[in-house]
Design brief:
The chain is mostly helical. The protein is built from 2 helices and no strands. Helix content is about 65%, strand content about 0%.
Amino acid sequence: MIKSKILIADTTYTKAHYNHKKLQEVFRERSKALHKTIYQCS
């Protein structure tokens, strides 16, 4: 049983909700940024 009244929302969903973006768009942007970071490090 959960006694806490605090709801922890996933940041991906929260950002998508407030920016009115689809989750797929947010995921695509973040994966693109991750690839860019990886290429810069190598």
